[in-house]
Write a structure and sequence with these properties.
Blueprint lengths: L1 H11 L15 H21 L52 E8 L16 E3 L10 E5 L5 E2 L3 E9 L11 E9 L12 H23 L7 E4 L3 E7 L2 E9 L7 E2 L14 H13 L4 E4 L2 E5 L4 E4 L3 E4 L11 H16 L4
Parallel strand pairs: 7-13
Antiparallel strand pairs: 1-2, 1-3, 1-8, 3-5, 4-5, 5-6, 6-9, 8-9, 10-12, 11-14, 12-13
Helix pairs in contact: 3-4, 4-5
């Protein structure tokens, strides 16, 4: 076995076959489960190292429920569907040559409290207050070739214009990432309803609120967790409204995917804080929902995990997006988290 692993090392940069010493038979199930987790998450990590490739393995990033409630919400779109991602940095884009679009940006209001997340409730959504224009709109420009793709969305580099301060200075452009759902149901129809984008952004809003609540309950100087605020962007083009999810760029750092919504964790980088947070979201909502699919960067400077694109699992399967695996997904995730937390006792 060692000779085989040695032969595979140059290609894999890790052992192809893992050998474990089992002192007791009751360790077999736990060891096999952990190795499956590591194998799946290493596959995802390897695929992310080649962002221009749109292959089958990127579909492992999040598990999508087969019966997507959005299947009946088919809207015409004037935007072309990309066929692959390209490895492009925002610093190399000539932004002055990109067309400027007028957009309106919406966000969810914060939940009224933890009690509101223990049952079927919904917050209100409103426009971000960009002053200077009567309709509170602003300007956006985007590079229309995606730089990455996840399980269900393409990611694009973009810039959003900050508002004028009392009209006395030229506005600045802030770096943003736009995310647009992928997949066609026929040659000219795609799933791009406003409701679908609002549901996706609601997950980030709830995850951010739960992270704030978790942070407040941690000892001083503990590591913190923050989710990038996510918004819905409405852009009018060719007489039609097109929608994106959007958020500001993550801070600099190595992007890592810690877990997915199927209950799998990358055991090479798993940490107690993230496990505790996931369990907290389940307990604080009375087992009604749980934040999963943790990914982002860790900043040593401010001792903070900056996360993006969470998946919220919920007992009500018709809430949120297709990554909500419902009650069975909740059970699988919370049991895995509890098992992994045993290592820290």
């Amino acid at each position: 076995m060692k000779k085989f692993n040695d032969c595979m090392w140059e290609e894999m940069r890790s052992n192809f076959v893992t050998v474990k010493d089992l002192s007791e038979m009751n360790q077999v199930a736990s060891t096999v489960l952990r190795e499956v987790f590591s194998t799946v998450m290493r596959t995802q990590r390897a695929e992310r190292a080649s962002p221009a490739v749109v292959g089958g393995c990127h579909k492992l990033a999040s598990i999508v429920e087969g019966n997507d409630m959005e299947s009946s919400m088919v809207d015409h779109t004037s935007l072309q569907e990309p066929n692959k991602a390209v490895d492009v940095s925002p610093e190399t884009i000539n932004w002055e040559k990109e067309p400027v679009h007028e957009v309106v940006i919406y966000s969810w209001a914060e939940p009224s409290g933890l009690g509101a997340l223990q049952k079927r409730t919904k917050s209100a959504m409103g426009k971000l207050p960009y002053p200077g224009r009567h309709d509170r709109s602003t300007d956006m420009r985007w590079f229309q070739e995606p730089f990455a793709c996840g399980a269900v969305r393409w990611a694009f580099h973009a810039q959003v214009k900050n508002c004028l301060q009392n009209g006395h200075r030229a506005p600045d452009w802030s770096a943003f990432v736009l995310k647009r759902f992928m997949g066609k149901v026929s040659s000219d129809l795609v799933l791009h309803s406003r409701r679908r984008y609002c549901n996706a952004v609601e997950e980030s809003s709830i995850a951010g609120y739960l992270a704030d609540q978790w942070n407040q309950r941690q000892p001083a100087a503990s590591k913190t967790i923050q989710f990038l605020p996510a918004y819905v962007m409405e852009m009018k083009t060719k007489g039609k409204a097109e929608y994106f999810c959007c958020e500001q760029k993550l801070p600099p750092g190595e992007f890592k995917k810690y877990s997915n919504n199927g209950g799998m964790w990358d055991l090479d980088i798993v940490c107690k804080e993230l496990l505790d947070f996931c369990k907290y979201t389940f307990d604080a909502t009375g087992g009604y929902m749980m934040v999963t699919d943790l990914q982002g960067v860790y900043s040593e400077e401010d001792r903070c995990f900056w996360l993006t694109d969470p998946a919220v699992l919920c007992k009500d399967t018709d809430r949120f997006s297709a990554t909500n695996l419902g009650p069975k997904g909740l059970v699988a995730n919370v049991e895995t988290v509890r098992m992994l937390l045993e290592d820290y006792r």
